[in-house]
Amino acid sequence: MSLGIVMIIAILLLLRRFKKIKEHFFIILITLCYGFLIFYDLGSLKLASSTFDPKVDDEEVIIKVDESFDKIVAIAGIGDNNANKGRYQIYYRDIEISGSDTLDGEYTHIYTLDEDEYYKYTIADIATIDFEYIKIKFPDKDGVISELWLLNDDKPVEIEIISYSNGTIQEATAIFDEQDTLPIDPDFMDETYFDEVYHARNAQEIASGQKMYTAVHPLLGTSIIALGIKIFGTNMFGFRFFGALFSTLMLPIIYLLAKEFLSKKWSYVVVLLFSFDFMHYTTGRIATLEPFSVFFIMTMFLFMIRALKIDYTKDLKKHFIYLMLSGIFMSFAISTKWTGAYGAIGLAIIYVLFELRYLLKAKKEGRPVLKKTFCLFLWSVLFFIIVPLIIYTASFLFVPMYAERWTDLSSFLDQVLRYNTYMFEYHTGLESTHPYSSRWYMWLFDIRPIWYYVKRSSDYIQTISCFNNPLISFSGIIATTYLFITNIKKRDYFDISLLTMFLTLLVPWIFVTRTSFAYHYYPCVPFLIIILVKVLNEIYDDLEDRHKKTFKKALVTFIALCGLLFIIFLPIIGGFKTSYIMAQVILRWLPSWYFG
Questions:
Q1: CA-CA-CA-CA torsion for 584, 585, 590, 594, nearest 10 degrees?
Q2: How many CB atoms lie within 10 A of CB 206?
Q3: What is the pTM of this model?
Q4: 80 and 137 within one domain
Q5: Beta bridge partners of 453
Q6: What is the DSSP code string of 179-199?
Q7: pLDDT digits over 226-279, tens only?
């Protein structure tokens, strides 16, 4: 890992003579280094992706083995659900494995595959089996298997398919056709974890043109994950590629956004702190929707602020261009997750606030603005109502929402309405509980991380928990409170817009009664960091010259401590091997933190 980062720096130093690279050297450098870090051990390109699908209940496949085995390993994806009207093939559904010394003899039960896990390895250590014939029975035709390994001393034994009760031997080879994909010691790089069992599965359904079992979010983000599957295949790297890419690209986006409020050097501080945030890193390495929704939310606010820095009463055309881009990215955000609508509320507040300001100023100066204001209103309806509705609806065009495919515009719109009604009823009616759920006030102070993954061995532990860098969280909330109080009198429009961005993404969660988690705070984090750095900037500017040197040293120390915490917690937030004492004692600062 260190060698890779050193090579990136060396190459950039050689290219620094080019003007554009020299001008943006720091941002390019940190983005590439962060990209290397987030893609490091992201996921395997090897996965048993072909699947054996029974046609009827109680199908049997009999194989012959030439040696004993002491371990069974299996993995399951999804079957051919387009061929099953009203049914859905996923998971094993009690696949029975039994053995006999003779082909026609009595078979003795060995093991039952009954785990309901999407692309997670089932590993069963069993007593040594010496049967020559092994029967694999599928009691439920909706039970599937992607690959089955019989291991002796952790090496697959040679098998020969003898019979298949409902087809040809060739059809049954899908059970054993990817034996070389078995990882030596499977971990998060080789199998799904947490909500990937939903989002990655939905993406595979989209990529393969299959009807969707169920989905509870808009499908733009899932379709982006599906694009990764199309490019890299059905594997963990393909599932996670675009999430990691969008998370990396957030660094230049937050830099551009910060520059709307801060100088270039202070914007560098924002980029550094955002790259040191735990949740930004963890969420970029799992196939969920947050990297896309947060990226789009940041970008829609970026273009809105750029638009509002231009007085529409003086330059309507340029103002429109940025408004249009803001509306498009707002559409993308809402088409990824409905939480994008929270940001849209903030967008509307900021928009109205600034436009009224320009209108009142123009009227005070006696400039005619009626025509321009009327044009602004019409274009705003287009950019922020009509275009978002079109983009949101169009995001469902290439997604098989239901088994019956739409045939015309009317049936398409009917399916979109049905799908969104189902989503609304799901989220409003959800009453489930979760041991790692948390409420909005807990997010502010990192009280309850959400635990994603664990793998334990005698020598080490691999664990993944999602929460923020505590130093950034605490100082960010103090800074936000400070900015809020100082703006009661000052009423700086840009400070108010920053607070609006943060609060409109957070406040709706106060009224949400359904189960919520730490990662729901993620959209707030970029704005929390910009607020923090803006407050630090204001404090620095107000200091006397003799104190500024001391402040700079304190700031450098603060940034270094944030970076140090990121490095120390990297095994916890990235799933890398670490000791039990580190994960369970040294880094467990609060009783409510749990790392496996």
A1: 0
A2: 23
A3: 0.92
A4: yes
A5: 464
A6: GGG--SS--TTTS--TTHHHH
A7: 999 999 999 999 999 999 999 999 999 999 999 999 999 999 999 999 999 999
Q: How many residues does the chain have?
A: 596
Question: DSSP string covering 465-525, please?
Answer: EE---HHHHHHHHHHHHHHHHHHHHH--HHHHHHHHHHHHHHGGGGS--S---GGGGGGGH
Tokens of 1: 């890992």
Q: What is the CATH number of the domain that holds 150?
A: 2.60.120
- Please answer whether residues 206 and 222 qualify as being in contact, where contact means their C-beta atoms are separated by less than 8 angstroms: yes
| Within a domain: 34 | yes
Secondary structure of residue 214 in the 3-state scheme: coil
- The whole-chain average pLDDT of the chain stands at 90
Take residue 295 and report the two structure tokens written for it. Answer: 């990226």
Task: Domain count for the chain, please give it.
Answer: 2
Helix (H) or strand (E) holding 225: helix 220-232
Q: List CB contacts of 482: < 8 A, sequence separation 6 or more.
A: 535
b/e for 152-191, b at 16 or more Cβ within 10 A? beeebbebebebbebeeeeebebbbebeebbeeebbbbbb
In a domain, 114, yes or no: yes
| Contact yes or no for 137/98 (Cβ under 8 A) | yes
The yes-or-no verdict on residue 200 having pLDDT over 90 is yes
In terms of residue numbers, what domain contains 8?
2-39
Q: Which residues pair with 466 in a beta bridge?
A: 450
Domain C-terminal end among 134, 156, 181: 181
417 within a domain of the structure (yes/no)? no
Alpha-carbon gap, residue 40 to 62, rounded angstroms: 41
Cα maximum dimension of the chain: 100
**Per-residue pLDDT tens digits for 433-460:** 778 889 999 999 999 999 999 999 888 9
Query: Which of 205-214, 337-346, 533-542 is predicted with the least confidence, judged by mean pLDDT?
Result: 205-214
Residue 235 falls inside a structural domain:
no
Antiparallel, parallel or unpaired: β 122-129 and 59-65: unpaired
- 265 Cβ contact partners less than 8 Å away, ≥ 6 residues apart: none
Please state, as a whole number, how many other Cβ atoms lie within 10 Å of the Cβ of residue 219: 24
Which residues are registered as beta bridge partners of 337? none
Residue-wise pLDDT for 484-506, tens only, equals: 998 887 778 889 999 999 999 99
Query: Do 27 and 82 reside in the same domain of the chain?
Result: no
Same domain? For 140 and 66 the reply is yes
Cα–Cα distance between 145 and 112 in angstroms, integer? 13
Among 148, 181, 214, the domain boundary falls at 181
Tokens, residue 410 = 């009317």
First to last CA, the chain: 25
How far is residue 344's CA from residue 127's CA, in Å, rounded to a whole number?
Answer: 59
Quick one: how far is CA 342 from the chain centroid? 18
Which pair of structure tokens corresponds to residue 79? 């079957």
Distance CA 316, CA 298 (A): 24
Is the same domain home to 70 and 171?
yes
Of 384, 388, 392, 389, nearest to 355 (Cα)?
A: 384
Q: Of 130-139, 403-412, 521-530, 579-588, where does mean pLDDT reach its minimum?
A: 403-412
Phi-psi region of 430 (alpha: psi -120 to 50; beta: other; left: phi over 0): beta
Q: 429 pLDDT exceeds 80? A: no
Residue 277 in tokens: 């945030």
